[in-house]
Amino acid sequence: MMETIRREDFADEKSRGIFEHRFNYYTTGNMEHILNMVTEEYNDFAGRIVELRKKLYARLKEFDGRLLIYGAGVHAGLTMDFLERMALDNKFAGCCVSDAQEGGGGKINRRFLR
């Protein structure tokens, strides 16, 4: 059974856009439709990351204490790099590692302890 899909059947404009790109790719085989879809999604994602960084920076700047990050795992280095670039590394105390391969059990990872 084939049904007609109408624009109003979608919950939002983003869903409509994704469907249209995928449908156009399916009907034409032109990869440009998929690239456009991915580019639009990336731009939306990148914008959200910028806003998140602004909010995080503002909250950390006001924070009067030092952070101990639990469960950062391999992302501890990335977290430290972010804090250093934002000149907020003085707010970072260290990471508490839960992964057994990293010495787990909720121990402080001295590799990142400041």
From TrEMBL:
<protein>
    <submittedName>
        <fullName>Uncharacterized protein</fullName>
    </submittedName>
</protein>
